[in-house]
Amino acid sequence: ERAWLETLSIRRALQDPWSIGYSTRDLGYAAIAQGDLPRARAYLAESLALFEEIGAHGNSVFPLDALGVVARIEGDYAQATALHRRALAISEEIRERRGQALCLYNLGYLAALQDDPAGAEELLRTALQIYADIGHRIGVGDASGRLGSVIGRDRDRLGEAAAHFSRALDSAGEIGAAPLALDVLLGMAAVLGATHPRDEQEALRRSFLGLVAAHPASTHEMKRAAERLLGEASELAATAGQAELADAVTAARQQLEAWQAGAVDSRSTIAEGQDSSLPDWLEPLTDRETEVLQLIEQGLSNREIAEQLVLTVGTVKWYTSQIYGKLGAQNRSEAAHIARQFGLLS
Asked: Where are the alpha helices (DSSP H) in 152-241?
């Protein structure tokens, strides 16, 4: 942050509105992470004003959306929604897809906070698809983790939630994003609290929350959320490190595997005697997902599927992830097996 402030000072001296707008936007992001909302609002408002003054509508999307995040953290959901929708309208008008995905993600986050899981899921799925299409890995991770948190509140969909959490952890590992991994742990802890309130999972839930509350890579909002879920109002020392995070991620993956295995076992039990009929709890595949699944079953690679269906490889990976989530599968062979079991490939 010190370097950013020095850079901003130089840019102010040069009177370059573009560069000042970028610097104040980034400083606004940093202030949000630190929980200094008045400072964040001041920086972001300046950034937005500069970009609007020079007609840089594409650049104005991001400080505008970040001001919505500030409003959300302050609890003003109506103002947050208005700001995100305004930013979304601009991004759609100029076809700024990353901005569009970001706004949809934040609107989905707000919907979840306002007890609208169906609305949240629809918004987050759309954001995730856009992020996957443009190859934005941190966005894929964020949207996948948030989607897992929303879906996982339903005990019957834990296998699907696990697939999204796993994808988010994969993204975090690929790019070394500790904050993303910590956010996944926070989401899993919330799901554990909602679905396993009085069993052995409580110790795992508390260990995840304690790590998020203590880790220096957690944002201020994540720390406060962890402390609320722990039921502790006091500040926790930021002493956790990379080794503790790695251990927690390993434990998280074991829990995710258990959720997915449980979903598969449940489906196998229900399927007995049903002659491949589709049970009520199994979310139907779309026509495109069925096409992709049929080619997976034939042994085609992602690239071969992409060429045959005239899609990008990233889009095929997105559909494959959706299929895994709906079927509670962990790999291609398992997805094909479950699909045959329920007659989805006939």
From this structure: 158-175, 178-195, 201-214, 220-230
Cα–Cα distance, 266 to 212 (Å, whole number): 32
Q: Are 146 and 187 in contact (CB under 8 A)?
A: yes
What span, in angstroms and rounded, lies between the C-alpha atoms of 8 and 307?
A: 47
Tell me what pLDDT residue 121 has. 93
CA pair distance 326, 320, nearest whole angstrom: 10
pLDDT at residue 179, as a whole number: 94
Model confidence at 75: pLDDT above 90: yes
Please tell me the distance from the alpha carbon of residue 196 to that of residue 146, in angstroms, as a whole number: 19
CA atoms within 13 A on the CB side of 177: 21
Residue among 118, 181, 197 at smallest CA distance from 151: 118
Structure tokens at 148: 């897992």
Is 0.85 topped by the overall pTM? no
Find the distance separating the first CA and the last CA of the chain, reported in whole Å: 58
Q: What percent of the chain has pLDDT over 70?
A: 88
**Which position has the token pair 């927690």?**
248
Look up residue 155 and give its DSSP letter: G
Percentage helix, strand, coil for the chain under 3-state DSSP, each rounded to 5: 80, 0, 20
Query: How distant, in Å, are the alpha carbons of 156, 277, 283 from that of 280?
Result: 11, 10, 8
Q: Mean pLDDT lowest for which of 100-104, 105-109, 268-272, 283-287?
A: 268-272
* Residue type, position 160, single letter: E
Residue tagged 């020392």 (tokens): 237
Residue 148: Cβ-neighbour burial (10 angstroms; 0-12, 13-18, 19+): buried
One-letter identity of residue 270: I
